[in-house]
Amino acid sequence: MPGRNLISWNAMLTAYARAGHVLEASKMFESIPERDIVAWNSMIDAFSENGEIAKAQEVFDRMAARNAIANSVTFLGVLCGCCHGGRIAKARQHFLSMIGDYGVAPIYEHYRCLIDALGRAKQLEQAEDLMWSMPFLPDVHAWTSLLSACRVLGDVERGSRIAKKIVELFPKDPASYLLVSNMVTYKTDL
């Protein structure tokens, strides 16, 4: 593509990826003469968001093989892909590798992604432990994610405790009240 620079390549790649045109994004990615972190991250995100977790992992592995340095955004894409694909062990492995091997400090979104994944994987105790151990105060999204998992899995005791905490911490959040109401309804239906 004559006359294009790295910025225009990345813009096209990102546009294809966000529109869900993964095949076109992949072709664009392979055509980029010299990839930067934005291109790598865009391709990982494209595959992760479209359920092609193995391909996202493959791009991540190629990135490492080419000595491209992964950053916080890279790991968020990989973690989200693993989590939504049900690959909890792999997500944990990446989370630990991010810290130990790459020196990337986890941000709140990394923790929240893993908390959500643990909840979906019926590992409520681990999800709650992670939420309490993170170096950030849990926001309403982390709490409600855990509450939703409690409701789906029928963990009424944990769900009731979390529901009380949500109302205490976020009294002005209407979504919280809806989830708490759903939990109470579930509890009375038992």
From TrEMBL:
One function term, GO molecular function aspect: RNA binding
Repeat positions for PPR: 5-35, 36-70
Gene Ontology annotations of biological process type: RNA modification; system development
Coiled-coil region list: none
InterPro entries, alphabetized: PPR_At4g14850-like_plant, PPR_rpt, TPR-like_helical_dom_sf
Gene3D superfamilies: Tetratricopeptide repeat domain
Protein name per Swiss-Prot or TrEMBL: Pentacotripeptide-repeat region of PRORP domain-containing protein
Species for this entry: Selaginella moellendorffii
Keywords: Repeat
One Pfam family of this chain: PPR
Domain of life: Eukaryota
